[in-house]
Amino acid sequence: MSTVLTQTARDNRGIATEGRSSEELRDLVSHWGAELELAPAETIVEWAAATFGERFCITSSMGDAVLAHVAAKVVPGVDVVFLDTGYHFAETIGTRDAVQHTMNVNLLSITPKQTVAEQDATEGKDLFRTDPDRCCALRKVQPLADALSSYDAWATGLRRAENHNRVIAPVIGWDAKKGKVKVSPLARWSDEQVERYILDNGVLVNPLTYDGYPSIGCAPCTRRVAPGEDPRSGRWAGTSKTECGIHQ
């Protein structure tokens, strides 16, 4: 199939690059999804970088730097997108800064259109409490969609072991809402594999992980988790909400 170029975008380094059509991107997913299902994480990232070039990035919530570390080994200077919601724990911001200064990545901190104060003025104070879905939409989902406009593919640290809702996460999938290829190089990794990789490679980890926060989101919506609880039970505790909307 011939390449159909549908848009010209300028990537974050200021270089004009061409994007593939949705049809071509879906064809890539259909062909390579099964092919790479059992491949090592490094091979998956290497394929994505070779296929999409500067129209490929990874995202990180800075719970740890495992995905950034894997990617930087095979794609030095890879774009790492971080959503700075304005509600993060100081430890999360500190982890982001440490990644930026110690790893060979191009870290991009993305902020919502409104500051927290501006959002309080237009939406009412503490929207995270009164309407957490809208708060996530304004401070996470839309900013990420805007940030990904210059990319054809994005990689996440999504793992099937994290909870039952993520068991079907494909290694190479099609994100219909964003019109992007969604790459999950760590999808098949167990908790034990993550821990071993961190120890073997001295990977940066958000210190809150060792203080009862196995899953770290925005400070107002994240609590400590008791031993034996679901690792994600501390997210939006007391509500039926389980995802911010980015992976839905």
Automatic annotation (TrEMBL):
Its main location: cytoplasm. InterPro entries: PAPS/APS_Rdtase, PAPS_reduct_dom, Rossmann-like_a/b/a_fold. Pathway: Sulfur metabolism; hydrogen sulfide biosynthesis; sulfite from sulfate. Residues 62-223 form the Phosphoadenosine phosphosulphate reductase domain. Its cofactor is [4Fe-4S] cluster. [4Fe-4S] cluster binds at residues 135-136, 218, 221. GO terms for molecular function: phosphoadenylyl-sulfate reductase (thioredoxin) activity. Belongs to the PAPS reductase family. CysH subfamily. It catalyses: [thioredoxin]-disulfide + sulfite + AMP + 2 H(+) = adenosine 5'-phosphosulfate + [thioredoxin]-dithiol. Its EC number is 1.8.4.10. It comes from Nocardioides plantarum. It comes from the Bacteria. Pfam families: PAPS_reduct (PF01507). Catalyzes the formation of sulfite from adenosine 5'-phosphosulfate (APS) using thioredoxin as an electron donor. The keyword Cytoplasm applies. Keywords: Cytoplasm, Iron, Iron-sulfur, Metal-binding, Oxidoreductase. Binds 1 [4Fe-4S] cluster per subunit. Residues 227-248 are annotated as: Disordered. It is found in: Cytoplasm. Gene3D superfamilies: HUPs (3.40.50.620). SUPFAM superfamilies: Adenine nucleotide alpha hydrolases-like. The gene is cysH. The active site is at residue 244. It is an enzyme of class 1 (oxidoreductase). This is Adenosine 5'-phosphosulfate reductase.
